[in-house]
Design brief:
The structure holds 2 protein chains of 2 kinds. Helix content of chain A is 42%, strand content 24%. Chain A contains 15 helices and 18 strands. Chain A starts with 20 loop residues before the first strand and ends with a strand. By secondary structure, chain B is α/β, with parallel strands linked by helices. Chain B has helices at 13-25, 40-47, 63-72, 113-130, and strands at 4-9, 29-34, 51-55, 81-85, 98-101, 104-108. Chain B has a 6-stranded mixed β-sheet with strand order 2-1-3-4-6-5, with helices on both faces. Chain B starts with a strand and ends in a 5-residue tail after the last helix. The chains are: A alpha+beta, B alpha/beta.
Amino acid sequence: MTKIPKQCGDLEWVEFMPSAVMVLGDGGRVLGANQQMADLLGRESGEAMKKLKNDELTVEEDRECDVEDLQKLLEKGSGVYHKAKRYLRGNGEVVLAQVKGRVVEDFIVVEVVSVEGGHSGISELVQGYDLLHRIMDRSPFLIYTRDLKGRYVVVNKRYEEVFGINRRDLEGMTPFEILPKESAETVMNRDRAVLEAEKSLEFEEVLQFKGREIHSLTWSFPIYDQSGGLCGVGGMSMDISQRIEMENKLKKANKSIESAYEELRMTQLALIQAEKMESIGRLAAGVAHEVKNPLAMLLMGIDYLDGLPRDIDVNLEEILKEMRTAVMRAEGIVHGLVDFSAQRQLEFSRVDMNFIVDSCLPFLRHELTRDRIKLIVDQADDLPDMMVDVQKFEQVVINLAINAIHAMVDGGGELKLRTRWKVLKGMSSDDGRRTREHLRNGDTVTVLEIEDTGPGIPKENLSRVFDPFFTTKATGEGTGLGLSICKKIIELHHGLIRIDSEEGRGTKISLTIKAVTGDRKKDSEYQGVRDFEK
Amino acid sequence: MVKKRILLVDDEAGFTRLVKFNLERTGKYEVKEVNQSTHAVQAAQIFDPDLILLDVVMPGMDGGDVVAELRKRPHLAPIPVIMLTALVAKGELSRNAVAESGDLVMIGKPVDIVTLIHCIDEALYFHEDGQGESE
């Protein structure tokens, strides 16, 4: 509501209206009018018009209608009328005008919206204003002007629509009355900046309105009065929230494309690596085979020489021993090479971890007895099945168990084999590549733990333990290929192998394999499915 | 003592030579070397061995082919065969594994003479004893 004082003496504000305006009181009495209205009606001034009544200003034929309209409004106490009427100018001329009448408290404010008929200057002014007004009101931008104190002077239709406030009500308000405090401050700061800079500036701001966040883009400029003094700011704003949202969506899509690309690139690298490994594998297999034959011959020769009487030469014994050791070492390396290049094609069977443990135990008996190692077997009896290449998996288990036994070199240690199942939790998403088969949180898995009471693995070696050829054994003892092969086999099963070790306490190796569901379809995704009759 | 006759088939002449030396030194065996796998069957027919040591990977006919041919001939079929292989046999779990595949004994090369003789004697023993496995 406009703040019009009850005492109609103070109607200064009419002068600020851009269009011709007059205020009518009871009985059509003119309480005030601005210069434009005075000019339109051929009167000297708004002041001069105060003595008149609306009737006198209206063509006779339109008077009755006018009275009716005015009465209606006054009785109702609210409302607006739009109509065309003919005014009588001071000199008797008729002016056809489109007017808008509005109740404001106890008065009626009449605004001339447009005029027909030739009164150059005035009508042009009004017409010009009218055109401008129409342009402004068609604009999709929010257009506003504020005075030096931040009070709204002019707003366009869009402004009214967005803020849901009529322009008349808006007049005299400041942004603090229509926006939340922070946003109002932003807006006022904008005005201040423009006034200070005295030039037009562009602003991109985030404002809060009606609980929503709006991204707004504003061009604001200083306004000067006729004498050239700063009298306010004007601006055109656009809600670019949608555009920003689109931008963000694009950025997000771009990011996901980038990461997809990165993943693709990594996969490609992995594939190239895998192919290299396969060629190396084939090469290794070929080399191994070729080398084994000469080695076989050397061994036969050494065996023969070993049958010679020792008195031929005092060093014969030692030499033959060294030669034999050398051949066995070479053979071990070659053997390991072939294992390392093992077939990528696994033949899966459906068994559970207990079956594996039971199958491996006979192979460990000899070493256990010889080294006086106590064997503890802790098998869960509700294990789910898993799909593994039985021969290769057993190879891994025996390898690891023998390692454990050998670690307890002082004899009298304890080897513990434990099987259990669980649901995976706390897996970081970096574990392994993101393939369809890799383990994820929530997967049911079966676990085999091989634990010894040996000296443990020093921290600095832990990370290298799976490297091919890494070994801490003395030269000639073992080739160090064992663990890297084990890791490879477990990886081919899409499983996990983990080492927990502490110097002085012992080592525990965990093998984790995904359990199979009862879902036949899923299980048959593995190649060469055979039901293993236990 | 009657020496056991062993037919040794391997394309590596050096290897067969050394094996022959080693086996014959014991006085228990008489060894015939065959370095051309295609001559193996004929040599078996002429030599009438008690046991055949057979390499797997050979040019021309490989060990498997030779066994197939031997098995076709009724008087050669029962002769025990030990395969020597430089390949890693499936299921080989330790270095000097002696694996059995069907009724064939396989030994991985290189093999030391002690193990070899042990395998030969065992095969001969079982063959004499029951004239073929009862399974």
